[in-house]
Design brief:
The chain has 271 residues and is α+β, with helices and mostly antiparallel strands. It is built from six helices and 15 strands. It has one domain (8-262): Double-stranded beta-helix (4-Layer Sandwich), CATH 3.60.130. It has helices spanning 31-44, 56-66, 122-128, 131-138, 164-169, 204-217; strands at residues 8-11, 18-21, 46-49, 69-77, 102-109, 117-121, 141-144, 174-176, 178-181, 186-189, 196-199, 224-227, 234-238, 242-246, 255-262. Strand 2, helix 1 and strand 3 form a beta-alpha-beta unit. It starts with 7 loop residues before the first strand and ends in a 9-residue tail after the last strand.
């Protein structure tokens, strides 16, 4: 085992994202090193590694140093396919009672152009809201559901937009609209365009004006960082405090990624 090495975090944007340098993830480090990685991840929302060519065993070993693996999968888009997973701002699986705490994406094969991913930070977004709106949101909870039927195979036609009645009837976990990040004490906005249906006790029609405002506000340029992939790149994001968006601008090319989701817990409401 290597001696303790503390990673270097270099910001990729003013308010979200950092590139981690100084580690070779094919090696194994003491617990202090992985704790520093976890702290950087919680602090910056999303962290990136370059030139880390890991095999399956090494990917899983790195992931288990940071949490418990919940999902492992290959994400492959072939040249003839036109749809891409993640084409829209969202947070992974908030329709679950215990959404994954983190998502890790490992790049194997990358198109010669395009295929970037964007992340938006919900900590900076919440802090930029007015004091009155922040106080209002702290008292709210929201229903999260998979009404849009995510998980369609490539090439399938999108289902019709759900009706207001379908949104009102949707069932799913109720999460705080503002949640706490225990590692930093930060309060973050916890709604997202894909899974947040309505506020608890409100109808969909009543919820839409405020939800739409938050969805538009959350992707202001200062809250967003963008990452250009290369083989061996890794992104690891805090699913509790970020949205992400896969840019599908590389038609006719292959893209192969490996995704690992780490198990989470019920969201902690912010006070």
């Amino acid at each position: 085992m290597e001696t303790a090495t503390l990673p270097e975090a270099h910001k990729t944007g003013g308010l979200i994202g950092a590139e981690i340098r100084g580690l070779d993830l094919t090696r194994e480090y003491p617990d202090e090193t992985y704790e520093a990685v976890r702290q950087a991840w919680a602090e910056h929302g999303v962290i990136f590694f370059r030139d880390q060519h890991l095999n399956e065993e090494q990917r899983e070993r790195f992931a288990t140093k940071l949490g418990t693996i919940r999902v492992k999968q290959e994400l492959r888009k072939e040249p003839e396919q036109t749809r891409a997973i993640g084409e829209g701002w969202h947070t992974d699986m908030t329709c679950f009672d215990e959404p994954p705490v983190a998502t890790m994406l490992f790049a194997e094969e990358i198109p010669s152009w395009g295929g970037d991913t964007q992340w938006a930070g919900m900590g900076p977004a919440f802090e930029a809201l007015s004091s009155g709106l922040r106080a209002t949101l702290l008292g709210l909870r929201a229903i999260h559901s998979n009404v849009r039927k995510l998980g369609l195979s490539y090439g399938q036609t999108d289902p019709p937009e759900p009706s207001i009645a379908e949104y009102d009837a949707a069932e799913g976990p109720v999460h705080p609209v503002v949640r706490l990040i225990p590692e930093t004490g930060r309060r973050v906005l916890y709604v997202n365009p894909e899974f947040t249906m309505r506020f608890e006790g409100w109808t969909r029609r009543e919820s839409l004006p405020l939800l739409r405002y938050l969805f538009e506000f959350g992707i202001r340029p200062e809250f967003v960082t963008r990452f250009h992939w290369a083989p061996g790149s890794i992104a690891m994001w805090d699913n509790r405090q970020t949205w992400h968006f896969a840019v599908n601008d590389y038609q006719g090319q292959r893209r192969v990624m490996h995704r690992i989701l780490l198990a989470g817990t019920k969201p902690i409401p912010a006070a």
